[in-house]
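Subgroup meeting minutes
Present: P.N., E.W., G.H.
Scribe: E.W.

1. P.N. recapped why we're keeping a running log of single-chain structure predictions: easier to compare across weeks, and new members can see raw inputs and outputs side by side.
2. G.H. added today's entry (79 aa).
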Amino acid sequence: HFGASIIRVPADYESIQAALDASSPADEIRVAPGSYRENVVFPGHDVRLVAPQGPALTVIDGSAPANPDSAATVSITVN
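Output recorded in log:
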């Protein structure tokens, strides 16, 4: 994809959500190994979220949502 960027977490953005919020269509977000305690909402555009070291070393821990009654660890919006 022409103009696509690679965004690195935590090197470029401290959180996965901050990287998703800053992303543009066709960007790739690469998440370094670690546990990320957050709940993430994908934007309404095409973006790839990858953990190059795999799920054994990279975890999205959604156990402390801001709104526990309606939160999911990962939400995807389709436009």
